[in-house]
Amino acid sequence: MVGPFSRLSKEHIVAEPGFNRWKVPPASIAIHLCIGSVYAWSIFNPPLTRIHGVVTSASTDWALGQVVWVFTVAIVFLGLSAAVGGKWLEKVGPRMVGVTAACCWGGGFLLGSLGIVTHQLWLLYVGYGAIGGCGLGLGYVSPVSTLIRWFPDRRGMATGMAIMGFGGGAMIGAPLKEFLLGLYSRAPQSLGALADVTLTTQGGVRYASLGGRLREVVVDADTVYLVGTGSTGVAATFLTLGLLYFGVMLLAAFAYRVPAPGWKPAGWNPEANGTARKMITNNHVHIDRALFTPQFYLLWIVLCFNVTAGIGVLGVAKTMMTEIFGNRLPTIVDGAFAATFVMLISVFNMTGRFFWSSASDYLGRKNTYFIFFILGIVLYLSIPYCARQVSADPKVVWLVYFYAASMIIFTMYGGGFSTIPAYLADIFGTRYVGGIHGRLLTAWSTAGVLGPLAITSLRDRARLGAIHELAAQVDPAAFAAKFGAPLSQLELLVEKNTVTIANLLEIAPAGTVDPSSTLYNSTMYLMAGLLAVALVANALVRPVHEKHHMEEEESAAPAPAAAAPVAHPHPLPRPVWPGNQ
């Protein structure tokens, strides 16, 4: 490659003899910490759904179902860009891909900020969702095959290091986002107590008369606020994060190095060290040929359903914690507690990525996934029971159990991501593992649709059912007095965010049970079922048939990306890629 981008190409970042391979993981982790902040998306849900109302949603604010899908679009484009970028990565190397990822991820935040300021949802989808999602996919695959080649003696540990930063992104991103939102937020104008302000309701929207004209207002904690007079700070937060992430990822991308052809760790011999196993091949399968094997699609199902079971919960983690426990243990579960819950999800997600992938070097990849699915089914089925118990008897012990079960689930969720590249290297060889991994990540794109779709649609169905049940119990006169409209306009009032479960409970008969804790029960049952399907798919995985293996000469030939490698002071007659000894 010639021109201004030549220093980014693969042939210019081949490590010199004696290069310390431990210098590469920090760059990988830095990039993944930046793009992994997508896991803290649920921090943005509340401010994005009340941009105009600020303290609560106004009639023109976006609904939760609309903003959750921004996260979904980002995950879809993550998988699609990884599928395309994986093969490109084998050609141009990780530095070029890492720099492109920095431009897309940082630029996506900046365009998303513009969409928030102008209240154009499509700009948020295009910016953060599509362009930012491409940054996610390219940044995600850029270190994987590189670290597998640097650490052929510990494939699971290598992929754990490459990917654990993604799981830990929310650990830094969640408190950072909370801090920036607090820094840039501004309270709306208060018109006084509800009892002192005359309000009218038209078309399900509440108004106050100011200067002879009606102005939309929202009511929170019996205080009336003027819509459009404050700020949640979310637009400025997007702008700040876009600039910050771009800078960090750009520096990290320039720290990437790739091993010279033929390099292997000193003294490493897979046969002598006892690392050769039935499910670990010494052959290679071409990236395009892998699509014709049943193993690719079985592992696609394994990844897709494991991710689906966790990704929908990730998108609404803060909301779920608040709805299940907020009204029952209000002195413990407040906004700060829910934000900490999101941060600890990131901690355990990151820990699980390194722990489980490293453990898979000893347990075997297939056995590791068996643990994920069997234990995961048990835990998902236990959460509805926990929700029912806390609703009937709000004790802290149920909060502790829910917390513990969630954290174990997310260690296995993260472990599934970090173990799958090593699983692919075992089954298909290391020659094209980066490209094959990229194509397998289309399973993540699919899960990015299935997970949020399942949890939002099932939750909305449960929420609407709960609202109608509560409305049937309240006094119609009390309803009309509180909302300024008759009970017959319930559907319209719900659509305009005027009626919610919380404010219906305020006028419900004494002893009425808050149904919020049951909103996610059907989702948990569905997730357990998906894990059962993945369990069967994992059991069916077998070594690839020899007819799909690359020929000896073809396998030994330099990859297209390395057609003109930098001269090495000690050339070998035959490149020895990890796993081809």
Description of the structure:
The chain has 581 residues and is mainly α. The protein has one domain (6-188, 227-262, 281-473, 512-545): Up-down Bundle (Growth Hormone, Chain: A). 60% of the residues lie in helices and 4% in strands. The protein has helices at residues 24-35, 45-48, 64-92, 94-118, 121-141, 144-150, 155-184, 234-253, 294-315, 317-325, 335-363, 365-392, 396-428, 433-440, 442-471, 476-483, 490-495, 501-505, 521-539, 552-556; strands at residues 190-193, 199-202, 205-210, 213-220, 223-226. A 5-stranded antiparallel β-sheet has the order 1-5-4-3-2, with no helix packed on it. The chain is globular. The two termini are 30 Å apart.
Key features of this structure:
single chain, 581 residues, mainly alpha, Growth Hormone, Chain: A, 60% helix, 4% strand, disordered C terminus
- N-C termini distance: 30 Å
Radius of gyration: 26 Å
The CATH superfamily title = MFS general substrate transporter like domains
Largest beta-sheet details: 5 strands, antiparallel
Number of domains: 1
Strand order of the largest sheet: 1-5-4-3-2
Question: Helices and strands: which structural class?
Answer: mainly alpha
| Arithmetic mean pLDDT | 84
The CATH architecture would be: Up-down Bundle
Please specify the SSE layout and strand pairing.
Layout: H1 24-35, H2 45-48, H3 64-92, H4 94-118, H5 121-141, H6 144-150, H7 155-184, E1 190-193, E2 199-202, E3 205-210, E4 213-220, E5 223-226, H8 234-253, H9 294-315, H10 317-325, H11 335-363, H12 365-392, H13 396-428, H14 433-440, H15 442-471, H16 476-483, H17 490-495, H18 501-505, H19 521-539, H20 552-556
Antiparallel strand pairs: 1-5, 2-3, 3-4, 4-5
Helix pairs in contact: 1-7, 1-8, 3-4, 3-5, 3-14, 3-15, 4-5, 4-8, 6-7, 7-8, 7-11, 7-13, 9-13, 9-15, 9-19, 10-11, 11-12, 11-13, 12-13, 12-19, 13-14
